[in-house]
User: Which sequence fits this backbone?
């Protein structure tokens, strides 16, 4: 049985993440053995050259994964949304007709563009708006995910963008999150130079520019679920532990 490898990088300043350090960067890949060294160097270079600042702590973890354990998940469809500035973002969210109360949706949006504490995503019940996960500062970290390389090149040609790296990483996460049974996701990057966020709903990734003010190092991610129809432990285990490649499902 051939093995693949999960390579995961996290970088922080001041202290390690576990000791309260400021998050700088995070990324990961699923690769074959021959690509381990090159990929590890790429992730280390990313950690040491990030707009959020200088990394004092870099964690690099490499785990083997049986190829047969990797699931294939198709990417979401993508749609570009016009949004001229942050002041019109709530209008965009309102017009998206998401199946969630407007006051809850707007509250979650206000939270993600101000959050500078939570390292992962939070899980919220669509009915009550209450947070369901319990690891307050860590949240849920979507992991063990990458693109099938051949399919990625095909997808990039079909969905041309001037910032392919940001988009393909966000699309990979959003597609895995959606495949877990998530009703919708709301996300905005904590990168101060990247103000584009997204919502995903009904198998579509809606890319929203100007979701936050330029220069802000805040950002967050919310998974909206129906608490009456899912098991929290199973859901989190899939997002954090199940290896997934984004590609063409057989």
Assistant:
């Amino acid at each position: 049985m051939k093995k693949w490898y999960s390579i995961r990088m996290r970088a922080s300043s001041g202290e390690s993440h576990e000791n309260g350090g400021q998050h700088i960067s995070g990324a990961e890949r699923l690769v074959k053995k021959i690509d381990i060294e090159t990929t590890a160097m790429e992730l280390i270079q990313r950690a040491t050259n990030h707009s959020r600042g200088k990394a004092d702590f870099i964690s690099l973890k490499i785990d083997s994964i049986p190829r047969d354990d990797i699931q294939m998940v198709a990417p979401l469809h993508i749609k570009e949304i016009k949004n001229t500035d942050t002041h019109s973002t709530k209008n965009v969210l309102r017009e998206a007709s998401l199946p969630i109360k407007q006051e809850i949706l707007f509250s979650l949006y206000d939270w993600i563009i101000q959050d500078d504490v939570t390292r992962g995503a939070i899980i919220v019940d669509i009915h009550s708006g209450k947070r369901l996960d319990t690891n307050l500062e860590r949240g849920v970290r979507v992991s063990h995910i990458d693109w099938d390389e051949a399919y990625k090149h095909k997808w990039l040609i079909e969905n041309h963008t001037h910032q392919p790296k940001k988009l393909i990483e966000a699309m990979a996460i959003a597609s895995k999150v959606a495949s877990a049974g998530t009703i919708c996701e709301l996300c905005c990057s904590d990168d101060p130079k990247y103000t584009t966020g997204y919502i995903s709903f009904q198998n579509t990734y809606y890319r929203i520019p100007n979701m936050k003010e330029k220069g802000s190092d805040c950002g967050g991610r919310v998974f909206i679920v129906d608490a009456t129809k899912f098991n929290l432990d199973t859901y989190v285990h899939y997002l954090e532990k199940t290896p997934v490649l984004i590609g063409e499902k057989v």
Observations:
- The chain has two domains: 3-69, 72-246.
- The chain has a mean pLDDT of 91.
- DSSP finds six helices and twelve strands in the chain.
- Residues 72-246 form one domain.
